[in-house]
Automatic annotation (TrEMBL):
It comes from Variovorax paradoxus. Gene3D superfamilies: 1.10.30.50. This is HNH endonuclease.
Length: 273
């Protein structure tokens, strides 16, 4: 499951996009049939990954994924006109909302629950003094962070093998700041817990190693998360957990490595039962 670069609707999506736009003026609901189908299509186009952190969206259930409005659809609680039209960074969680784009498909993307919670009601329009309602959806240049429908993720944010996020542009750095992708504690809850669940579900030491290696290969979490999990959940030294994970990731490269790997598995399969 590779990471996605840009959300690209195709010509075959036009009927669905028009159906969603035709809902304008109605009360927002994720139970609307067209919205359900759009949510499914967005997950496909995003390779089942969060639009902000690229974490896997492993289930189409509440709590795993959110249908995110890039420009908030509603006015925030107790937002005054002065606060809602201010361009000061510390006032951007007060917004007048953009009801005109409630059913605009390019204002919608799939995010994980955690990123959606941290992003909250943050308003990314650069110039919020512009008269409302807006006549058309803003271009990427009119937003303080990158737009996943029109810009490549990797242009704005790079992710290293340990899921360290680096902003390559102001737009990328804005996403990292608002979704707290700089915070090791936040990332630990997001990725380390996923590794722990996989390890706990395994019925044997070998299954745990296989599950963790698969997670690394699918970019569900980092090698560091897998090593930490194997050491903690199976009660073995970190150095040995690292050696086993590395051998599992490369054991097919030589007969000797494969033998060493299975010798380690046999040792811990017995000692950790």
């Amino acid at each position: 499951m590779s990471r996605f670069s840009t959300i690209k609707f195709t010509r075959s999506d036009n009927a669905l996009l028009n159906e969603v736009r035709a809902l304008a003026g109605k009360k927002w609901s994720t139970d609307l049939d067209a919205i359900k189908r759009l949510r499914t299509r967005l997950r496909e186009l995003q390779n089942h990954r969060c639009c902000y952190c690229q974490a896997p969206i492993e289930s189409d259930e509440s709590g795993f994924r959110e249908l995110e409005h890039i420009l908030p659809k509603n006015k925030s609680y107790r937002c005054t006109h002065a606060r809602g039209t201010s361009n000061d960074q510390d006032k951007r969680r007060s917004t007048l909302g953009y009801q005109e784009f409630t059913f605009e498909p390019i204002n919608l993307a799939i995010s994980c629950k955690q990123c959606n919670n941290y992003k909250g009601m943050h308003d990314p329009l650069k110039d919020r003094t512009t008269a409302r309602p807006l006549n058309k959806f803003p271009s990427a240049a009119q937003l303080i962070w990158f737009h996943p429908h029109t810009e490549k993720y990797e242009t704005h944010i790079t992710i290293d093998e340990d899921f360290g996020f680096t902003g390559q542009t102001a737009g990328g750095r804005a996403i990292i700041a608002e979704c707290r992708l700089f915070d090791s504690e936040v990332l630990g809850r997001k990725f380390l817990e996923r590794a722990r669940v996989r390890a706990k579900q395994a019925e044997s030491f070998r299954q745990a190693v296989d599950a963790l290696a698969s997670g690394i290969e699918l970019k569900a979490f980092s090698k560091a998360h897998a090593i930490q999990t194997l050491a903690q959940e199976r009660g073995i030294p970190t150095a040995e957990a690292k050696d086993i994970i590395n051998k599992r990731l490369t054991y097919a490269t030589s007969v000797q490595t494969m033998k060493q790997y299975f010798d380690s598995i046999l040792k811990y399969e017995v000692n950790t039962i």
